[in-house]
Amino acid sequence: MTARLALLLAIGTATPAWAQDHAGHGQMDHSKTDHGTPPPPPADPAVSGTDLPPGDAPAPPVPMPHAADGIWGADAMANSRKVMMADEGGGQRFAQVLLDRLEWRDGGYRWEGEGWFGGDLHRLVVKSEGEGKDRFESAEVQALYSHAVGPYFNLQAGVRHDSRPTPKRSYAVVGVEGLAPYWFEVEAHGFLSTRGELTGRVEGYYDQRITQRLIAQPRAELNLSAQDVRDTGLGSGLTSAELGLRLRYEIAREFAPYVGVAWERRFGDTRRFARARGADAGGVELVAGIRAWF
Amino acid sequence: MMTIDRRGLLRGAALSSGGLVLGAWTPLGANTPDAMPVVSGDLIELRIARLNRTVDGRPTRAIGINGMSPAPLIRLREGRRARIRVTNDLDVDTSLHWHGLLVPFQYDGVPGVSFPGIAPGQSFLYDFPVRQNGTYWYHSHSGGQEQTGLYGPIVIDPAAPDPVAYDREHVIVLSDHSRASPEAIFRRLKVQPGYYNFQRQTLAGLLAGRDQPAENRKHWGAMRMDPADIADATGATYTYLVNGHGPADNWTGTFRAGERVRLRIVNASAMTTFNVRIPNLPLTIVQADGLNVAPVTVDEFQIGVAETYDAIVIPQDRAYTLVGESVDRSGMARATLSPRAGMVAPVPPLRPRPLATMTDMGMGTMDHAPPRAPDPTAEQNASRRLATDDAPDHAAMDHETMEHDGMDHGAMKMRDFAAAPQMAKTPGVQTISPMPADRTGYPGQGLENVGHRVLTYRQLRALERNPDVRAAGRQIDVHLTGNMERFMWGFDGKRMVDTHEPFAFVLGERVRINLINDTMMAHPIHLHGHFFELVTGQGDHAPRKHTVIVQPGGMVSVDLTADAPGDWAFHCHMLYHMLAGMMRVVTVRPAGGAA
């Protein structure tokens, strides 16, 4: 009677066992060599099969070599094993070229895009952005190593080169990009030029689906500088900001034309420097462009 | 050949036994236009090659066997020997795996695990005793070839009298076909995991009072979880097939009124969970994954990728529509059962797609608020146009559920590694179910309130007593993990490429495996070379399966007798989940032996 009661209790506690901690049953625990406590014999013959609670025997050691090697030979198996374990087991590499913005605006043009190559965790990213009217006003390219540091974020480091404005500049780059709560795509990068100038850029956007294919994208970008950079017209502090709202229609996932508005403004000394050389301090523009990837 | 009366079957078996059936299928029974070829006999020749096929009138490319896709029905007999010679006429390696068959591991057909694969121009002879009977299937285990059409059904006739009485049988192979290559589909899912989802929540839906109210959207957004993420690859790329025929092709199986018709239903999809029903015709489930179960009569059942169910139906003198609706309702497979060729039945409309709930995120079970209709701009594939006005169905009664607004889940941690000690802390783990519920009594997403009987695993009871009724000597937890933003999938936070360490078992030992789904998607988990018992309160008559759906945020316990020595594949049968790394090797070795 006591044994039967104990068994019933054991069943009662084992059934919702997933709510409990199984740390003691880790399947790769090789430290024990005994065979554990065998489960109690069923006192009630009506309780059998899957109604019986499991015991706590230790896991066996992990065997090597592979069983198939003994039949077909290790050499014959080597290549197919590599394919199965890596090439078809999560180790694939992919590439994408994304033209996030290729747009026309008030007599000028602007582009921002990136290409990447790599797997789930490690990627090489090449980014480029710039703008111009009759000729390039700014043009930059970055080459970054991107490493997944969590479910949503990547740490990035590499180099950046600006061919415009002149004089040309090169930078070391460190930053993060990823998906923030509430589905905001965000990125922040710091740039240290070969001349010792420290600048930064923070960007974010949000894709608001209006329908399955019509998407409104508010977007913000802030540029910062730790010091005045007179020959590129930057003053220290917040140098410029841009807010945009673009409405795109995804004819296909890979191809979406858009229209929108962009508001741009320079701040502080940057604004003063721009005025001094006769450039405007910013304003509102209509934009039209395409977003495409392949 | 799909329409087979049993006398014809025996005649056919007699004709082909002892002979070599090469390229010529023995036509059995009535020769309907939709007849599926059968291969059987002492030596079966299968030749794998690329071919052209037509689906719903559109030409497309495929990989098939003996000139056809799906591949021919392989008919075997329990107690005989199967000798199957497979010749590879492709320019890449290939393989065939006999799904659910208990074979020596070296003939299990998984390149890199059980054998080296079959090189271009080479032949490979599979040679194994047939130790079981029932409905099974076979498919390539190389890359994405399964998606490209390299799959077919297997029927094994029992050595003893069949406990299931029937007058006629039809094999129903459900599958998903795309004109895009498997490489392209996989890449798109990697680059943009929501690429194929055109049924997401939108602002238009919010303003129209559809889907989640604003408060819930905000809450789910805070967690970076999309409740409309029901399927990865959808009707946006797939046409859903019955025996290789699209919904407009309308494959038709015939019967005589009042006959007991046995439907052998196989889900040979790459990525699609189907909800199967035949309006106005109850389905009596008599077999699951090839093994007999006590008859249970339902109106609908969910079938995961690689599962099989046999159902007995007794149709009257009228036509019926067989509907295999994709779980996300982005499209349907459709066929007709009819007493005469040319008759059709009304086709019900696609029902609204469901939304995931807190339970699907592993936050326990909870009450659900009244449903709201899905997004007004949601897109479904061409099969939606087949719906007829007179369809007698319950579409209007379909309610997807939604959690209470007011519930506070803030205290529940979404990614607490303390809940899973063996879990690797990798970017491949987006969430860990804090309270995974046993969902074997759950009919499947979108089937909670359809207004008729829907099968659950808890209703399955083995017809015969289980062969091994010992208690499990130990138990292990296997976490099904993923990151839907990176399309990474694995076990215990690790992809196949991250660890070559197998799940090790001693020959003859009995182990309880707790499959815990830490993701918001259902995973059909398949172990090669074994059946396992589902722990669903059926004692020593537990249903034995080779593939089990672990519902989102839920868990399933199975008891396994590791009785087949060798190395075996263990994986999610969603093709692109497997290719993303949701696979591991299981080793079964004698006690004390190093190898």
General description of the model:
The complex is a heterodimer of chains A (294) and B (595). Chain A has 294 residues and is mainly beta. Chain A folds into two domains: 2-63, no CATH class; 94-293, monomeric porin ompg (Porin). Chain A is 14% helix and 48% strand. Chain A has four helices and 13 strands. Chain A has a twelve-stranded antiparallel beta barrel. By secondary structure, chain B is mostly beta strands. Chain B has a domain at 4-162: Immunoglobulin-like, CATH 2.60.40.420. Chain B has five helices and 36 strands. In chain B, the strands form seven sheets. In chain B, strands 1, 12, 13, 15, 17, 18 and 20 form a seven-stranded mixed β-sheet that branches. The radius of gyration of chain B is 23 Å and the shape is globular. At the A-B interface, helix 2, helix 3 and strand 9 of A face helix 2, helix 4, strand 26, strand 27 and strand 28 of B.
What can be said about this structure in brief?
Chain A is mainly β and 294 residues long. Chain A has four helices and 13 strands.
List the defining traits of the structure above.
heterodimer, A: 294 residues, mainly beta, Porin, 2 domains, B: mainly beta, seven-stranded mixed beta sheet, 7% helix
Topology, please?
The complex is a heterodimer of chains A (294) and B (595).
Chain A lengths: L1 H13 L54 H4 L1 H14 L6 E12 L2 E11 L3 E11 L3 E13 L4 E12 L4 E12 L3 E10 L4 E9 L1 E2 L4 E12 L11 E13 L5 E12 L1 H9 L5 E12 L1
Antiparallel strand pairs in A: 1-2, 1-13, 2-3, 3-4, 4-5, 5-6, 6-7, 7-8, 8-10, 9-10, 10-11, 11-12, 12-13
Chain B lengths: L3 E2 H11 L3 E2 L16 E2 L3 E13 L2 E8 L7 E5 L3 E8 L8 E3 L23 E7 L4 E6 L11 E7 L10 E11 L3 H10 L11 H5 L6 H9 L15 E5 L8 E4 L6 E7 L6 E4 L5 E6 L2 E8 L1 E4 L4 E6 L6 E7 L5 E7 L29 E2 L32 E2 L33 E2 L35 E10 L4 E4 L11 E4 L3 E8 L5 E5 L4 E3 L9 E2 L1 E4 L3 E8 L4 E7 L2 H5 L3 E7 L6
Parallel strand pairs in B: 2-4, 3-6, 4-7, 6-11, 12-15, 14-22, 25-34, 26-29, 28-36
Antiparallel strand pairs in B: 1-12, 4-5, 7-9, 8-10, 10-11, 12-13, 15-20, 16-19, 16-21, 17-18, 17-20, 21-22, 23-24, 26-27, 29-34, 30-33, 30-35, 31-32, 31-34, 35-36
